[in-house]
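Subject: Sanity check before I submit

Could someone independently write out the structure tokens for this chain? I want to compare against mine line by line before I put it in a report. The sequence has 602 residues.
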Amino acid sequence: AFCAQGPSVRALAPMSAAVAAVGYWSLFVQYPNHELVLRELLPPQSLSELRDALEVFDDQHLLVADELRGELTPVERIAQLRDGVCLHVAVPRRRIYVTRHDGIVRQKAIVWYPGAGAEQIEGAIVKACGFPIGTPVELLDGQDAVVISATIPNETSLTVVPLLPEGASVGYRANGGSVATSGSGRPDHVERRRQLESPRTRGGPSRSATTPSGARLAKPRAAGSGFGGSLPRCAHGSGSGDSGGSGVASASAGLVYGQRGAAPHNGSIGSAPVGRTGSPSRGSAPLDVPIADSASGHAISGSFARDEHCVHILMGHGGPVLSLCTVGDVLFSGSQDCNIMIWDLNNFQYIGTLPGHTGVVKCMAATLARKMLCSGSQDKTIRIWSLETFSSTKTLTGHTSEVNSLAIFDGMDILLSGGEDRSVRVWDLSSLCQLASLEQAHLSGVFAVRQLDAGQFISAGRDRTLKVWLSSTWQLRSTLSPPHFDCVSDLAVAPRSGLFYSASRDRSIRKWDASNLESDLQLTNAHSDWAMSLAISPSELSLFSGSRDSVVKVWDQNLNCRDVLSGHRGGISALLCVENNLFSASHDRTVRVWRVDQFEHA
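---
Independent answer below. Compare away.
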């Protein structure tokens, strides 16, 4: 079905007089699995410009409603569009059918989406055929061997043959699973696990990849750590959720910390994420993913030695990771898959998942004092989560479009939110009520809000400008100049140094003086593509920037580049620095952990 045109659609968000005066188009975009979103932009001159403005990835299809034929057709030229048109973003998928060589499994469908790597596709094939995880296999099309890749033709039927060592055989478990055994009689996957555990197998310090799976149990934190004691048991996570008490979806169905096989809980526990290990990801980096021992149920992290400073990779999201937040010793990651995943900062282990949003989770902020997590989404809402029960306690409504940025105002118990509706809203965290709404704060969507000091905050947006506001009256103090040449995508504040920085899609980073609100330095072409995210180290000696060019750059206070951190295979959408670790969230569906203490020297 395609969306209707006319006044009913335009009523979603009428254009302001200022926006209409400069000839903006209003386009209504249906992103995958989400509500209709209003996008206002200057008439595009090319399809690439349009896709960039709408943030449509290269592997996604842009469709327009054909009113004459009553169907969706691909957008192939700008002439197909006009002001007020409705567009759809579709994610193509690929499907093949596999049959085991011995006929036990026949015509099993394997489906993946753009971004899936050969290792992940092979893992899905192995799992579908009932082989032990990690079993190498060969695909045959008749007598021809087929290379496992994401570009295997759609609807192909292939035969799967396990590649076993000489003298090995394939046995079967009572439950139908197969076990490959070596000449010694030990299952092959047990041999591989013993090799991984052997200190002689790998040289040098190892980095590990953490993927949530049904076999991984989250460990309770020691009392007194984090935000006031041990983590709550999932089975006792019920809370006064506003929508039935959505809360943690644990690492396995019915999981109680430290216990397997418990009955599913009827309270705030969501259903477990299924098949996280095999979830497709956008071009994940080459690594040895955790090898699960199907006999013991434990996952073993492999090692990989490429990115010099990367010490861990957090995997499990089903879409690009767009936001990060930390409180105490817990990390939260929000994604296009509409979920928030929880990680233990002590050991980088997966704890659970917070389901509830019906749109992309674009931003988060947390307060330790109130033991509260706030998350903003494309579904136009801000959800409030209790850090004691990991359950949703309230949903804040007011924005008329997606929520792009959140910030908690220290010392005032205030939450700031910036939205695609061009407004900045002020919320009281005590009563969870709206205190003020700064309508038309920008001429277009607000991309970032940050506290500048005890009495001011700063906002930036799609209209290329940065604005400083007074917290005493919530009135505009100043619009900063000169502006960027494209959208301002992120801000980072160094309060002790009296500095702040802005990153823009014009590929530049600008340094600002917080005392006089003037910029004395702009680094053009800081990246080869959009500068999308910023973070400052705790010492404020280092600035980190992430870009759509898939790299993180390290800068000193005067924007001299000190290092380049590579390894991601997708744009860097969010950065967060905690003590000696930098966390980078990417469109490749992973979060990488980097050691950055070596940069903390003046």
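---
OP: Matches mine. For the report I'm noting this point. The radius of gyration is 25 Å.
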